[in-house]
Amino acid sequence: MTEARLRPDQAGWLIGSAAISLAPHTLHLPPAITAICALLLTWRTFISLGKGTLPHRALLVGLAAAVVGLVLLEYRQFFGKDPGIALLAGLLSLKLLETNSRRDGRAVLLLCFFMQTGQFLYQQSMLVAALALLGTTTAIGSLLALEGHPVAPQLRIATAARLVLQGMPLMLVLFVLFPRVQGPLWGLPADAYSRVSGLSDSMTPGDMARLSESSDIAFRAAFAGALPQPSERYWRGPVLSRFDGRSWRAGLSSTEARPGYTPQGIAYPYTLTLEAHNQRWLLALDFPGEAPGLHYGTDFQLMSAEPVRNRVRLSLVSYPQTPVGLSAPPRALREALALPAGSNPRTQALGTHIKETARDAEDILEQVIADFRQRHLSYTLNPQPLGRDDADSFLFDTRQGFCEHFASAFVIAMRAAGVPARVVTGYQGGELNPVDGTLVIRQSDAHAWAEVWLAGKGWRRIDPTAASAPRRIDGGLAAALPGSDRLPLLARGDLAWLRELRNQLDALDNRWNQWVLGYNPARQKALLAEFGVANADWQTITALMGGACTIVMALLTAWALRRRTAADALDRSWSLFCKRLASAGHPRAAWEGPQDYADRVSRVRPELADTVNRIATEYAHLRYGRAGIAPAALQRLKHSIKNFHPR
Q1: Please, what is the average pLDDT of the chain?
Q2: Are residues 390 and 488 in the same domain?
Q3: In this predicted structure, what is the pLDDT of residue 208?
């Protein structure tokens, strides 16, 4: 038998669910794919309003081929997160143009659920979870519309929300007790981490300035005691020793199971919560002590065994005053002196000249810093275009640059003067969030500085940016660049109320990260231990989960049966009322509702009108009212019907 066509309200619910499911993906989809999806949804909306008919299958095949071709043109492949989501978005929009039955409607909603799940391939933030919950509730409302009669949209959404709320206890049980597995339960596409931003293992003039325009959080640090001074808040990332005349790249380095230095000085214990950046470096405060499971580079980077593809939480202790590299390998020193022939000749000449007049390496260092100060170099996010020899153009021509220009020019001058030097990239500073007491380090805190090697003293950090912009070190980027229109909106110092709002949202997001996204096997075992389940293995956890799910399902079933029992008792009383009126010669017709039945009986038996109308009204209120069946009201109605004896 042919299935009935969709009603206009059912088509409207499907279109709304598709739009809500697709909307969050517009931030990631190519504009052409977004435009096609919007056009197809608009077309289907006009059809549901009676202003057209569904297109012929041949046209749909042609449109599908066009969508597939566009995805291939945009991504050059079909496999991966981005092309997969784009293809699914196009097919969902096309499916609506052939949907005119409840069966097809269910297929549309299945695609909507896939699109909502796809949001978590980009982010797992609280906002994404809220959007997915909204989409899920709307899709459930659409399922109800497919199976039921037309009702007001607010009533449909209220019913869908109740169903979602009824599922919350079971969801909570599964979240808490489902055996936790480190990493994803299935293999993510190869491009799943392609949009992760952050530092690179190379640096070209302009890279750090572009990164500093982002207000995204790179990591958070919660210190157990006092915070280190701003001058010590250097979070070490890639160490760049190789220079080709324009770009700096990571040098030769190996990793060891223990740090190659003996920690000294003030200790700063803290918990580092690092956002995913798809690299192995961990961006710790100089210089971390030994921690299990971590690796230590010979260039003093703290490394992970695998790329950081999920949020990482580490407990560390750093000692910024520790001397490092007292006996540097000759290979590392040779690498830290190499300069390509013919590059930046004026900067190299400056270094050579200072070497001829200086007493020793420390005097060279002081003279180069003094020369930088005397040139009145400007710290800016908008430097003038530089020439082929970037350091020469920066020092002698434009005299404007960002931190990477300062660090690069300084290292070139030091190498030309015969002092081993290298560029270090990472982050400097951070902003204390007064709401939760965490130090928040953003991409806008990205920074580049230098290290020089001095005999008997090892590698020593030198920040040439501080010579021209000391406020960058003490107050961050916003203090060093007041009024810059390229600063992230939330990092500007003239928007205090917006920064306060950001602090509140950041603290809330941090709690979400720690307690929801950070709920790992260790935390699960710690939580179970608090309830007396020590050393829980996966068999114990599975048994607990099964038992808890059984209890939740039993409670929900009892609640549903209680509601059903009340409804059955109400219907039995109404049936008794109708039976007694039928015995008096007034049977109820199958099509008559309570009030219609009472009106008809009242016309032929006026003496029964008050009682019949009162009973019918009370029954209708209890049976169809939004307040549910109150036990006291049900008892009153049963008593009235029991005492009703028409003749």
Answers
A1: 85
A2: yes
A3: 81
**238-254 pLDDT tens trace:** 999 999 988 999 988 88
Catalytic residue status for 578: no
Q: Which domain holds residue 599?
A: 540-642
Residue 627 has pLDDT above 70, yes or no: no
End-to-end CA distance of the chain: 49
What does the alpha-carbon distance between residue 82 and residue 88 come to, in Å, rounded to a whole number?
Answer: 10
Note whether 484 and 379 are same-domain residues.
Answer: yes
Cβ contacts of 371 within 8 Å, gap of 6 or more = 350, 354, 413
The closest alpha carbon to 638, from 621, 620, 615, belongs to: 615
Residues 436 and 428: their CA atoms lie apart, in Å, by 21
DSSP state of 451: E
Number of domains in the chain: 3
Q: Please enumerate, as own/partner, the contacts of 418-421 that have beta carbons within 8 Å and a separation of 24 or more.
A: 418/337, 418/355, 418/361, 418/364, 419/361, 419/364, 419/365, 419/452, 419/453, 419/454, 420/328, 420/332, 420/333, 420/336, 420/337, 420/452, 420/453, 421/336, 421/450, 421/451, 421/452, 421/453
56 assigned to active site: no
Q: Give the model confidence (pLDDT) of 268-307 as tens digits.
A: 999 999 988 888 889 999 999 999 889 999 999 999 988 8
230: nearest Cα among 16, 548, 477, 51: 477
Average pLDDT over residues 476-492: 57
Query: Residue 403 above 50 pLDDT?
Result: yes
DSSP reduced 3-state for 266: coil
In this structure, are residues 183 and 310 in contact, taking their beta carbons and an 8 Å threshold? yes
* Residue 547 shares a structural domain with residue 474: no
Q: Which of 299, 390, 463, 506 is catalytic?
A: 463
Contacts (Cβ under 8 Å, ≥6 apart) of 531: none
Residues 241, 142 within the same domain: no
Confidence of residue 187 (pLDDT cuts 50, 70, 90): very low
Residues 143 and 214 placed together within one structural domain of the fold: no
Q: Are 448 and 371 in the same domain?
A: yes
Catalytic residue among 286, 390, 403, 405: 403
Mean pLDDT throughout 412-433? 93
302: helix, coil or strand?
strand
Q: Which two tokens stand for residue 439?
A: 């130090």
Report yes or no on 508 lying in a domain: no
Number of helices (H) and strands (E), helices first, in the chain?
22, 16
Which of 497, 530, 565 represents a domain boundary (last residue)? Answer: 497
Is 50 exceeded by the pLDDT of residue 1?
A: no
Residue 112 falls in the annotated catalytic set: no
Residue 375 structure tokens: 């040139």
- If one compares 485 and 118, the residue with the highest pLDDT of the two is 118
Question: If we measure between CA atoms, which residue out of 420, 494, 424 comes closest to residue 465?
Answer: 424
The torsion region of residue 235 among left (phi > 0), alpha (psi -120 to 50) and beta comes to beta
Exactly one of 277, 390, 447, 506 is catalytic; which is it? Answer: 447
Residue 24 lies in a domain: yes
Is 316 among the domain residues?
A: yes
Strand partners, 421: 452
CA atoms of 109 and 115, how far apart (whole Å):
10
Domain annotation covers residue 162: no
The CA–CA distances, whole Å, from 49 to 38, 46, 53, 254, 421 equal: 17, 5, 10, 67, 71
Q: Are 364 and 354 in contact (CB under 8 A)?
A: yes
pTM (2 d.p.) = 0.68
Q: Are residues 47 and 135 in the same domain?
A: yes
231 and 139 in one domain?
no
CA angle 622, 624, 627 (to 5 degrees): 60
